[in-house]
Amino acid sequence: MRASRLLSLLMLLQTNGRMTAQELAEQLEVSPRTIYRDMDALSAAGVPVYAERGPHGGCDLLDHYRTTLTGLTAAEVEALFMMVIPSVWDDLGLKQTAEAARLKLTASLPTPFQAEAQRVQQLLYLDAAGWFQPPEPTPYLELVQQAVWEQRRLRITYRLASGEWVKRLISPYGLVGKGGIWYTVAKSGGHLWSCRISRIQEADLTDIHFERPADFDLGAHWREQVSQFEEQQKQYTVSLRVQPHGWPDVVQLFGEGVYYLSVNDAKHDIIQLHFPNAESACLHLLGLSTSIEIVEPFQLRKRLCEIAQQVITHYST
Questions:
Q1: pTM greater than 0.70
Q2: Which residue has the higher pLDDT, 255 or 226?
Q3: Could you read off the pLDDT of 11-70 as tens digits, one per residue?
Q4: Cα of 140 vs its chain's centroid, Å
Q5: In the chain, what percentage of residues exceed pLDDT 70?
């Protein structure tokens, strides 16, 4: 991409000072003739570059010229403009601040590269929300963020997954956004736990400060917790025979990855799925009706028959 090469050329001159066309050509893996053409393009765009011939000649920038993006490579500049997730900035109350920062960053680029930066934003859009999930209300997200940034404890009233309400004093170590859902990894009672922010009913920011361990790695901790949670969800294995017409429903419910679990038995595809327990398996599989047939465990087949009969009885009265 020529715009990337032009930016790299500019950064080389700013970092190293005067360089010969041959040196630049070797760095950028092009010919000296291409370097001279690129110098002309930069000059035409208003960047004060020049080339001098002779034994002490070379390509250079006027002494007074410095871009504020010293040291960034072309790929790094492009990556910066890819790191935009509008919903995240909006959730954190930083939408206007982030937009102002983006505009300043764009303005700090040399003129030839501003269009390229804007183009990158049109080629990539990151949507952090999950499918078919309404946004979760998080009225205390900004307060939790403040507590994280200022290392201050929070008193919260929180609803556990069981439905029970508890009051806790927490030290929030960091924020995590996953699939459109916000969590804080916090310490409470000597243990770390992941608090789903939408379940906070009340929150008060205290003046009690805490020390976040210098060696605590938020990303590593979260990945470990996710891995453990996913393993817990695989305690109950079910083998299913999928009818040809049933694949769209199965894929919509369990994702495209189920295709790679299938084994063809000459008539139908057989897949294995994992659930935390039998009741969870029933809850997920009942809606698939005759699109699937449970091969094993046999007890799950019996349980589905019982539930189906209960439904018939319920709606027949």
A1: no
A2: 226
A3: 788 767 789 999 999 988 899 999 998 888 888 878 888 888 777 788 988 866 655 555
A4: 21
A5: 88
Domain that residue 28 falls in:
2-61
Q: Is 50 left (phi over 0), alpha (psi -120 to 50) or beta?
A: beta
Q: What is the mean pLDDT of residues 291-298?
A: 90
Q: How far apart are CA 311 and CA 313, in angstroms?
A: 5
Contact at 8 Å (CB) between 239 and 272? yes
User: Which one, of 243, 245, 255, lies nearest residue 132 by Cα?
Assistant: 255
Query: Are residues 217 and 152 part of one domain?
Result: yes
Q: Using pLDDT thresholds of 50, 70 and 90, give the confidence band for residue 111.
A: low
Q: How many domains does the chain have?
A: 4
Q: Does residue 219 belong to any structural domain of this protein?
A: yes
Report the candidate in 14, 12, 38 with the shortest Cα–Cα distance to residue 27.
12
What tens digit of pLDDT does each residue of 236-279 get? 889 888 888 888 888 888 887 766 666 665 566 788 888 988 98
- Where residue 42 sits, what CATH number does that domain have? 1.10.10.10
The structure tokens listed for 147 are 């507590």
Q: Which amino acid, 270? A: I
The amino acid occupying position 252 is Q
Rounded CA gap, 287 and 124, in Å?
36
Alpha helices of the chain — where are they, by DSSP H? 2-16, 21-28, 32-44, 74-82, 86-91, 95-108, 111-123, 141-150, 218-232, 247-254, 278-285, 298-316
Q: Name residues whose C-beta falls within 8 Å of residue 235's C-beta, 6 or more positions apart in sequence.
A: 274, 275, 276, 277
